[in-house]
Design a protein that fits this description.
The chain has 539 residues and is α/β, with parallel strands linked by helices. The chain has 20 helices and 18 strands. The strands form five sheets. It has a six-stranded parallel β-sheet with strand order 10-9-11-12-14-13, with helices on both faces. Helix 12 crosses helix 17 and helix 14 runs parallel beside helix 15. The longest helix is centred in the middle third of the chain and has 17 residues. It is elongated. The two termini are 52 Å apart.
């Protein structure tokens, strides 16, 4: 794949029109690092390969975006890479790019439920730029895959609307023919089922789970090298002719780059310019104003804010998991993405919270999109694996969670988020905002769009809330501030800290405390506990 088909530049892993290569099975890391070393990507030395899976090494057990050059996304939990590959293929469509997205996955990815969700979405959108290679070796840690999973992958993916090819995963001529056929398919995604023998070449363990999750052992390694024609006494050895083949292939990238550069020049002449993210001042100026006399649910305010900011932030795209009418996230001016038209900015994700969240990560990681997903807050449990990966990758995806408390109407305890807020706040590098009113909602969105170092979440209410006096953008930016106070501050001053819909209640309680007892009191609105603690730690 790398030597004959992949359009990449080892010296510029950020080239915009490069093909994307995603290893959905992150435990295929030794293959990733071998390819990185041979191709000259990131100047990965042989000495670093020898630190494989050691603390502090770039060659971690699962390849990480931002740590190992050329790694597009961090894929540890199985199925996540496949779903993020779907997002990257969507990003290419939206940017009108010609690059392909290749995903290498295995049996474990196919067993995970997220593969069903994401692949169904890819088929619905007819993502012709997506090519998935399925390494089918019928082995997992506990034994044969067919002991637990007898799905017919070909029929399954054809039912999704994919084109499916099959080949012997050890026959290089067959692989080449299949890849060429796959590249000619432009109207639907492609699945290539490559049947392989795990550990092929190992005399006693080939085709068994004994070489899936454990080292072969010194004797088996030596015997395998001998069977494959290598000197069993040599370790971490690559023949010079192999380096020469990879170096020659890398030189071909200049043809693509020159063609790509010409296309960029032509686009510039035609007046096509890359969008530039607005400044903080521009975002604040775009925020809508809210009537202090008219209470409004923060989910409704959220829609007004998102639509106002969408006008000045063209990379804001996303959608809700079949709950747009309840989440209030539709960008009303900008149309819906479909298989026929990718010019819109709204997505119908369907009832697929996990795939939605991972696809959002893929779109955001593709380039400079700020993609969002939305659902009821209680369903954030379905989104958490993808949010966690976004946090690890420093990918600034956004999640909008409505119905953020037990004030959710008639649905009962299954739809009442109780522990979810604490759970979300415990994830490192995730910034959560729970605004107290419509004004804080706008300020929170400004901060989420300015945050490029990790994911952000906003929690909004179903019920109406009053427009509060004393809200502060600087306070929201810092995470917490005094929104109301009475009396002279002393050691006996009562301080009430609240977030979201409880802030208005806290202010009413504080007013009674002052009116009835003349007790010095302060109310702190803390829309982002993480922001507040981070600021406090700087003093």
């Amino acid at each position: 794949l790398w030597l004959r088909h992949l359009k990449v530049d080892p010296k510029d892993t950020a080239w915009k029109n490069r093909d994307r290569l995603v290893f959905s099975g992150g435990h295929a890391s030794s293959l990733v690092y071998a390819l990185t070393h041979l191709s000259g990507t990131g100047d990965l030395k042989m000495e670093e390969l020898q630190t494989f899976r050691q603390f502090g090494s770039r060659c971690a057990g699962h390849p990480e975006r931002g740590v190992m050059p050329g790694v597009e996304v961090t894929t540890g939990p199985l199925g996540q890479g496949l779903a993020m590959g779907v997002g990257m293929a969507i990003g290419a469509k939206m940017k009108k790019r010609t690059n392909l997205t290749w995903v290498l996955c295995g049996d474990g990815d196919m067993e995970e439920g997220i593969s069903h969700e994401a692949s169904s979405l890819a088929g619905t959108l007819k993502l012709g730029g997506l090519k998935v290679i399925y390494d089918f070796n019928d082995i997992q840690i506990e034994g044969h895959v067919t002991d637990t999973n007898r799905d017919d992958a070909k029929k399954r993916f054809e039912a999704y609307g994919w084109k499916v090819f099959a080949c012997d995963g050890h026959d290089y001529d067959a692989i080449e023919r299949t890849f060429r056929k796959a590249e000619k398919i432009t109207d639907v995604p492609v699945l290539i089922i490559a049947t392989t023998v795990i550990g092929k070449g190992a005399p006693t363990k080939a085709g068994t789970h004994g070489c899936h999750g454990a080292p072969l052992g010194a004797e088996e390694v030596a015997a395998t090298k001998k069977a494959l024609g290598f000197d069993p006494e040599k370790s971490f050895f690559v023949p010079q002719e192999v380096y020469d083949v990879f170096a020659a292939r890398a030189a071909l990238c200049h043809r693509w780059r020159n063609k790509d550069a010409k296309a960029e020049k032509d686009a510039a002449k035609a007046g096509v310019v890359e969008s530039v993210s607005p400044t903080r001042e521009q975002l604040l100026a775009a925020l809508p104003k809210f009537d202090p006399a008219k209470p409004i649910a923060t989910r409704a305010a959220n829609k007004k804010v998102m639509n106002a900011l969408a006008d000045v932030f063209p990379e804001l795209v996303g959608g809700s998991a079949d709950l747009e009418g309840s989440n209030k996230t539709g960008l009303t001016k900008y149309g819906w993405v479909s298989a026929q038209d990718f010019s819109g900015r709204n997505f119908h994700w369907g009832v697929r919270e996990l795939a939605m969240s991972s696809v959002v990560n893929g779109i955001t990681a593709y380039e400079n999109f700020r993609a969002f997903g939305a659902t009821f807050f209680v369903f954030s449990d379905y989104c958490r694996p993808a949010i966690r990966l976004a946090a690890i990758m420093n990918v600034p995806s956004i999640w909008v969670f409505s119905h953020d408390s037990f004030y959710v109407g008639e649905d009962g305890p299954t739809h009442e988020p109780i522990e979810q807020l604490a759970a979300m706040r415990t994830m490192p590098n995730v910034t959560t905002f729970r605004p107290a009113d419509a004004t804080e909602t706008g300020y929170a969105w400004v901060e989420m769009l300015l945050n490029t170092k990790g994911p952000s979440c906003i929690m909004t209410t179903r019920q109406n809330l009053p427009i509060l006096e004393g809200t502060s953008y600087e306070g929201v930016k810092k995470g917490g501030y005094v929104i109301w106070q009475a009396g002279r501050q002393t050691e006996e001053t009562v301080v009430i800290v609240a977030t979201g819909s409880e802030v208005a209640i806290a202010i009413e309680a504080a007013k009674r405390l002052w009116d009835e007892r003349q007790k010095s009191v302060r109310v702190v609105s803390m829309p982002s506990v993480e922001r507040f603690l981070a600021a406090a730690c700087t003093y």
